[in-house]
Amino acid sequence: MKDILILSGGAYNLKFCSEYLKDKDFSYVICADRGLDAADSLGIKPDLIMGDFDSVNKGVLSKYKKNGAKILSFPSEKDESDSELSFMEAVKLKPRSVTVLGATGKRMDHLLCNINTLNIFLEAGIKAYMVDEYSILSLIKGEEKLYKNKLFGRYISFIPFTDVVRNVTLTGFKYNVSSFDMYRATSRGLSNEMMEEEACISFDEGIMMMLISRD
After folding, report:
1. Is 71 exposed, middle or buried, given 0-12, 13-18 or 19+ CB atoms closer than 10 A?
2. Higher-confidence position of 105 and 74
3. CB atoms within 10 A of CB 192
4. How many CA atoms does the CB half-sphere of 61 hold within 13 Å?
5. 3-133 maps to which CATH number?
6. C or N: which end of the chain has fewer Cβ atoms within 10 Å?
7. Dihedral through CA 93, CA 126, CA 104, CA 153, nearest 10?
8. Of all residues in the chain, what percent are helix, strand and coil, respectively (each to 5)?
9. Dihedral of alpha carbons 56, 59, 65, 67, sign
């Protein structure tokens, strides 16, 4: 299994999604609840449909049921969100990477939980990216190299996910640091920029959120 696409149950800018996905090749597609509506609108064939189906268009769901799609159904009252369940299912497939669309939207509580549960992939050693029309978010640890011609947007922010991230070193950025401790209750890592063709962040301890954003 190489790369998985998860269509979550949040808000979608379908024009952006269509443009973003046109040159991407995913080996497996998971739709979580209302993510099926987005897949149907985008003409994407799901390999797995899952969730409690409290928000999906019932006509769309019925269409895929009739077509024999693989469906995992869960009760609406459960410990995990539909997104978390889809993340857990994706980890079982041992992919190289996971891209999540539709995980951001109007509900801030859902957004925060989706960011937190993205750690499921980090713990499994799987690259994971939460994408919308404004930003790409990932959780990183250890070292991450970035290349200017592959960036999504102008700004790169590094925000501690754990209480402290120890001995942070940034090279190739507008604002570089060396062996610097970053704490969660600060905005120190906000809106950096790449100045070289290749840049790198490394640190010894903790987990960092990395957001590549458009202005």
Report:
1. middle
2. 74
3. 19
4. 18
5. 3.40.50.10240
6. C
7. -130
8. 25, 35, 40
9. negative
Residue 184 has phi, psi (to 5 degrees) of -65, -35
d(C-alpha 210, C-alpha 127), whole Å: 12
Domain covering 143-213: architecture:
Sandwich (2.60)
pTM over 0.90: yes
φ/ψ bin of 198: left (φ > 0), alpha (ψ from -120 to 50), beta (otherwise): beta
| Domains of the chain, residue spans | 3-133, 143-213
pLDDT for the residue numbered 77: 80
From residue 202, how far is each of 98, 103, 150, 167, 213 by CA, in Å? 22, 27, 19, 8, 20
Amino acid at 84: E
**Is residue 13 packed enough to be buried (19+ CB in 10 Å), middle (13-18) or exposed (0-12)?**
middle
**C-alpha closest to that of 140 among 188, 205, 210, 211:** 210
Q: Is pLDDT at 106 greater than 80 in this prediction?
A: no
Whose CA is closest to 11, among 107, 99, 79?
107
Which residues, 6+ apart, have CB-to-CB distance to 59 below 8 Å?
none
Tokens standing for 2? Answer: 């190489």
